Amino acid sequence: MDNEAANRIKQEIEKLVKNYTDLRKFKNDKEIAAISEANVRADYIDRLFGILGWNTSNPDEYDREHFIRGAGFADVALLLTKKPVIFIEAKRFGNFYF
Length: 98
What we know:
about 20% strand
């Protein structure tokens, strides 16, 4: 990756972070918590992985609601050569599980 591409990615991520910090400025905690998991995924997670170069409109690469035998569904699976390599579980803002 060249410096120009790296700078573009950095700028796009900074915009995404600013979008979230602006959201926090204009909404209270209850309003933030009311934002659905689907909207968090669409507005932040999908955008982040798009910025990072994943084709979020190609289900062979970025599969929403990916079934995992014995576990259920992952909100997103990142796939390489049509095989899942990373599973992502989206949550509403304010729900942190460690």
